[in-house]
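ok trying this again, last paste got cut off
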Amino acid sequence: MPEKIITLATLTYMRAQLLCAMLESNGIECFMTNINRMKESPGGVLVKIQAEDSEKAVKIFDDFRASYGVNKEEAVAYMKSIRRILVPVDFSVQAENAAFYALKIAGAIKADIKLINAYLDPMGTPQTYLESYSYQLNLDSIIREVEEETEKSLRSLSNRLKDKIETKNIKDVKISFDLFKGNAVDTILNQIREYEPALVIMGTRGNKLEGLRTYSSTTAQIIRKADIPVMAIPQNYDASSVTHPKRVLYATNFDKTDYTALRRLSSFAKPFNAKIYCVHAALEEDNEMDEMEMRKVRNYLLDTMLEPNIECGILETIDLQQGFENFIREHQIDVLAVNTRKRNFIEKLYKPSVAKKFLFHSNIPLLVFQAKP
């Protein structure tokens, strides 16, 4: 059963944004509706929460109203903190392509971008006994050289992104970078905790994919271990040829956590005015039960989001992978979004079910939400 959603407050657009920021900073999931209809009019925007959070949320709302000035500053600070995109790069063509794709996303949501690179510690490189003495003598110079080259490459990429910002007159987007000595996966996870981005965008290698093995191990591990959405940009995807996502496909298997993922996806898609297709791929014999489940999803979205730019439907196919590929091509889908549980992420990739066979078989960006009940 989906969660029960209630309206906490009806506010102006700016106050609704600030209240949502305060709720989220206190661990309460929320979202806004009626945004497009009455963006600045008093009483236009509805702030909605899960019913089970109502007691805590009402107290926060009361405090928010009682001391609006102080809470406004806190909320603005939090809003700035969640408008961050982390982009790990290894200076490959794929990574740089992902960085420029991140810039397109950042320009629409007014987010800052942080580029990071983790270079392996030379001390971790195996050496023979005869080589070790000369290696130790040169270790300091080797480390300095690696650091200098890494910083030079990061600065170059940062400057190219800044040039694009200036050329395209992109507002309210800042670029920063940092380099770290050590393991890439550990570095990225540490930066997720410290930098607190809303999204990680990474380039990947390989587009004729056969499951997890053909994605870079770093990307696969970040998707599995991170607790925030991760967007993977496949090899040969030309970020320069797109502006921003216009059509997003969400592949559902009717898991209860899909409701949370769809709300989060709706928030992601709203700045681009992108249409979301919520699709379940089914074999013909499963169709009656699937239609009933899809009606539940459709009714839930209509009740909670009011006017969502979402189309729900069943994709009848005898081949799941081919069915999705045809749908993506026919509907000119820009992003494939899925929801996955971290605990059994790897196992799911090798089981033939909705989007599981297809998960890493796409030539378009893949947006992965970690399942949250």
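PB: full thing came through this time. The domain at 245-370 is CATH 3.40.50.620 (Rossmann fold).
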